[in-house]
Each structure stands twice: as structure tokens, then as C-alpha cells.
Design goal:
Blueprint: H1 10-21, H2 27-38, E1 41-44, H3 52-64, E2 77-80, H4 85-91, E3 98-102, H5 113-125, E4 130-134, H6 137-141, H7 145-159, E5 163-167, H8 176-188, E6 193-195, H9 207-224, E7 229-231, H10 239-253, E8 265-267, H11 270-282
Helix pairs in contact: 1-9, 2-11, 5-7, 7-8, 8-9, 9-10
């Protein structure tokens, strides 16, 4: 894939997203979509004051969203810092919910690569099924694309058959061209998912950035035959916001991507809000 041969206009991306999102749904249609989205969520806590008990409670919530009478699923994963990997892995044993960890000097990535990989290995050794890494945005901005490629490759090598989600922090990549380049580097490096944001930077997920990511995944699949997932994250707290990303994924990548093997949404408040909306729609 060639970095320099692809260009986007921000205004064109905005118009395109508006065209995709201009849809209306009947209550029963919306109910079915919301149930699907609930099963795509990486239920997340990434705060400096996280405690083992808080993390355990989050795991219990992730399981409790499954309601056979209402037809709702569990969330896809619980995402935490590496020090809580063992706690989450133990709490979720036998549930089918994945243990996800941000690792590799999240959220900045500003640590020596060897130290970052030690953190990844720690998370994996303590039960992590998935690693969410951050790229070195500063190195990419100053033109050192090869450094970013090599760090993604190193993180993927450490992960082996475990899923690697590569966080681009699109809010710090100020041009569509730079977001596109970051996508291509991450895919070349072996990413299993492209992820928008850490949730620590504004803006976080945007429709325009996700469209660029989806286009790149689509072209990569057509070229290489490998399906790569997408994870919008950061600031997604309402059912309507989540629905928008669902519609973008469906439009660009199709129905085959609308499952938790290829589509996640990173969020802390969304699951509860979505569950409440499902309960309300179920009575309509």
C-alpha cells in the first residue's frame, strides 16, 4: 500500500458521514441493533484511582448485562491497566468475556520500547487475551514512519496469537493524510484491530477519522485477504453515538464486520445507557 497516493478532504469526509448517518429506524429495528452493539463493547476503566474492587464490580456488570428474557448479551471484553489483568482474568473465567489490557506505556507511548514490551508481556502472563497498544505519534509526526512500523511489529510479536489493537490517537494526527498513513503502518505491522483513541485526548473518536480507518481496512482486505477489526473509542457514551459508528462500519465493511471478532466500541458509560434504552424499547 502506498502512503503518498491517497488524499482526503475533511469536508468530503464530513459530508460522506452525514449521508451515511441520515437514516431512520423503527423501534424494533433499533432494538435489534442496540442489542448487537451491547455485545460489541469493551467495558473500560482506565483511571489512576482504579482499585481491585472497582475492577471486580466492572467484571460483574459485564456479565450481568446478559439477560435471556430481554435478549441482551454480555459485553465483549473488560479493558483495564495491566496491573489488573489477573483480577479480570480470574473474575471472567468461564464467561467468554475477553480480558483486554492497555499496555506499552499507555496513553503516551513515551517509554523505551523494551520497557513497553515488558509491560505487554506482564499483561499476557497475567491472563490478558487482548492488548491495546499506542503508537508513537511524535515519531510519526516528525516523519519516522519506520520506527512506528517496527514498534507495531514488536508488539505483535510479543502478542503472538493474542489480539493486538493498535491505537492511533487520531486526535493528535492533525491531517487525514497522517491518519491514513498511521492506518497503513499499523496494518503492515500486523495489527488485528485499528483503534481511534486512548480516551485521554480531545478529540477522541470522530466520524471522519473512522471513515479513513474503515476505508483502509477495506482496501487492505481486498488486497491481502486478511480481515482487520475496528474499535472506535473515546467519548462514546450514548446509544445514538454508538449507532452512528455501527452504521459507518456497516456501510463501508458490510454485515460480516458486525460482530465482536471484528468490531468493538471502547466505553465506560455506554453499556449502562444502552441497556436502559433496550429496556425502554422492549416495552414499545
Amino acid at each position: 500500500m502506498q502512503y503518498s497516493h491517497y488524499s482526503y478532504s475533511l469536508s468530503e469526509l464530513t459530508q460522506r458521514s452525514e449521508n451515511i448517518l441520515n437514516q431512520q429506524f423503527q423501534p424494533d429495528e433499533l432494538l435489534a441493533i442496540y442489542k448487537t452493539i451491547l455485545g460489541l463493547i469493551d467495558l473500560t476503566t482506565l483511571n489512576g484511582n482504579d482499585t481491585a474492587e472497582k475492577v471486580k464490580n466492572l467484571c460483574r456488570q459485564a456479565v450481568a448485562f446478559e439477560n435471556k428474557e430481554l435478549g441482551t448479551p454480555k459485553t465483549a471484553a473488560v479493558c483495564v491497566y495491566p496491573v489488573f489483568a489477573g483480577t479480570v482474568s480470574e473474575e471472567l473465567k468461564g464467561t467468554g468475556i475477553q480480558t483486554a489490557c492497555v499496555a506499552g506505556a499507555f496513553p503516551s507511548g513515551q517509554s523505551p520500547l523494551a520497557a513497553r514490551l515488558m509491560e505487554v508481556n506482564y499483561a499476557l502472563e497475567h491472563g490478558a487475551d487482548e492488548i491495546d497498544m499506542v503508537i508513537s505519534r511524535g515519531r510519526l509526526i516528525e516523519g519516522d514512519a519506520n520506527f512506528v512500523l517496527q514498534e507495531v511489529k514488536a508488539h505483535k510479536a510479543a502478542c503472538g496469537d493474542k489480539h493486538l489493537k493498535v491505537i492511533l490517537e487520531t486526535g493528535e494526527l492533525k491531517t487525514p493524510a497522517l491518519i491514513r498513513q498511521a492506518c497503513e503502518i499499523a496494518l503492515e505491522g500486523g495489527a488485528d484491530f485499528l483503534k481511534t483513541s486512548t480516551g485521554k485526548v480531545v478529540p477522541a473518536a470522530t466520524h471522519e477519522a473512522v471513515l479513513i480507518m474503515l476505508d483502509t481496512i477495506n482496501e487492505y482486505f481486498k488486497s491481502e485477504g486478511r480481515k482487520v477489526g475496528i474499535k472506535p473509542a473515546g467519548g462514546i457514551s450514548t446509544p445514538h453515538e454508538a449507532l452512528n459508528y455501527y452504521l459507518l462500519v456497516k456501510d463501508v465493511l458490510g454485515e460480516k464486520w458486525l460482530n465482536n471478532q471484528l468490531f468493538r466500541i471502547g466505553a465506560s458509560r455506554l453499556a449502562g445507557n444502552l441497556y436502559q434504552a433496550i429496556e425502554e424499547l422492549a416495552t414499545v
